[in-house]
Amino acid sequence: MSNTVRMLVFCLLALSFMAARAANEELLAVSWPASLVAASSNLRINDIRIMLACGEFRAVRHIPSDWSIEVERPVSSRTKLHLSAGHGASDLPNLKALQGAIVVAGAGSRCFDISATVYTETTVRRLTRADLGLVKAR
């Protein structure tokens, strides 16, 4: 067998392995802490930043009206998702509308980590992986 044929076979096997791994990759939805989801919280949330290490954002199922979304995917494997209100009238009273709306992959990786910063009119709330719930996406 020639070197070219061997290399082609190797590449095809590698691609099929990666495709099988991607097909079996578990998708997880971000679940916010109860204090940020409670209907009575009236937090006036105007900005959310989520940082993901060794993972990928796969979907955002809901973007609130008059909100913008931006994803930054540098080569460093540290991906950032930024959601922000257009102006004060579109601030969110809580994160109920975004409960389970952000879907990520890669939690099986050893270096996977996720954190978020939630900005309100008066406070900044920093959330670690322990604060955020990751539940199997439907």
Summarize the structure.
Strand 7 (113-120) and strand 8 form a beta hairpin. The chain is built from two helices and nine strands.
- Contiguous low-pLDDT stretches (5 residues minimum) are 9-21
Individual helix count: 2
Q: Regarding quaternary structure, how should these chains be classified?
A: single chain
- Sheet with the most strands: spatial strand order: 4-5-2-7-8
Overview of this protein structure:
There is one protein chain. With 138 residues, the chain is an alpha+beta fold. It has a single domain, classed as Immunoglobulin-like, CATH 2.60.40. It is built from two helices and nine strands; from the N terminus they run αβαββββββββ. Strands 4-5-2-7-8 form a five-stranded antiparallel sheet, with no helix packed on it. Strands 3-6-1-9 form a four-stranded antiparallel sheet, with no helix packed on it. A hairpin with a 3-residue loop joins strand 7 and strand 8. The longest helix is centred in the N-terminal third of the chain and has 21 residues. The termini are far apart.
Summarize the helices and strands and which ones pair or pack.
Layout: H1 3-23, E1 27-31, H2 34-37, E2 45-53, E3 56-60, E4 67-72, E5 78-85, E6 102-105, E7 113-120, E8 124-127, E9 133-136
Antiparallel strand pairs: 1-6, 1-9, 2-5, 2-7, 3-6, 4-5, 7-8
